[in-house]
Amino acid sequence: MDIDTWWGIVGRAREAAGDRADDRDPPDDPLPGALTDVLAALEPAEIVDFAVTAYEVTASAYRWPLWNAAYLIEGGCGDDGFMDFRDGLVLLGREVFTRAVAAPDSLAGLPVVVRMSRGESGWIGYESLDGPVKAAYARAGGAADGFHAAVEAADRGRLRTGEPGGENADAEDADAMRRRLPRLAALFLD
User: Fold this and answer.
1) What DSSP state is assigned to residue 63?
2) Where would I find the DUF4240 domain in this sequence (predicted)?
3) How many CA atoms are closer than 13 Å to the CA of 129, on its beta-carbon side?
4) What distance in Å separates the CA atoms of residue 144 and residue 128, rounded to the nearest whole number?
């Protein structure tokens, strides 16, 4: 699936979710259900292609500077937390995602991040895009128990994530974070 088509699907789901598209606070987060609905209108093979492209997109965000930003925003961030963070970042749409990968400090301008810095409700992360995608695959007529096998077959070994890209800094070093991520540091450290 080409990247424009893929982001178009995410965009349609965001449109369907309306003004709550950026609300990752469960239990009434509308976007996963909207994504399932949009995907369920596709053929199972197209949904598998969406899943493979989702892995490629989130792998492109597997970068130390973004992980450091997630660490500040979430008050800590391990491996699983960073997967959730990247999946949620995808749900914020192409523009936010692309800008955040290129310049993680840009996340300081998001209303949800500002709320989080004040200790109010909000979360960027989303616990696995696999859930809505797998549900759509089953609704579209794909064998629910065959989803992961179909994705692995379509992936054909393309996705191999080693170490995160970019330069790492000690996310617990406040001075380093103030230099590298000044806007986020101002929200979360000062």
Assistant:
1) B
2) 1-138
3) 24
4) 16
- Shortest CA distance to 10 belongs to which of 140, 133, 161, 152? 133
Q: Residue 24 — φ and ψ, nearest 5°?
A: -90, 10
Euclidean distance between CA atoms 119 and 103, whole angstroms? 24
Please report, as a single letter, which amino acid is at residue 34. A
Biggest CA pair distance of the chain:
53
Average per-residue pLDDT in the chain? 92
Q: What is the pLDDT of residues 31-78, one digit of tens each?
A: 999 999 999 999 999 999 999 999 999 999 999 999 999 999 999 999
At 38, list the tokens.
Answer: 């949009």
Q: Among 7, 174, 187, 5, which residue's Cα sits nearest to residue 91?
A: 7
Among residues 175, 171, 187, 190, the alpha carbon closest in space to that of 65 is found at 171
At 155, which helix (H) or strand (E)? helix 147-155
Structure-token pair, residue 88: 């949620």
| Alpha-carbon span 96 to 89, nearest angstrom | 8
Query: H or E element: which one contains 90?
Result: helix 79-91
**What is the number of residues in the chain?**
190
- Is the CB of residue 183 less than 8 Å from the CB of residue 108? yes
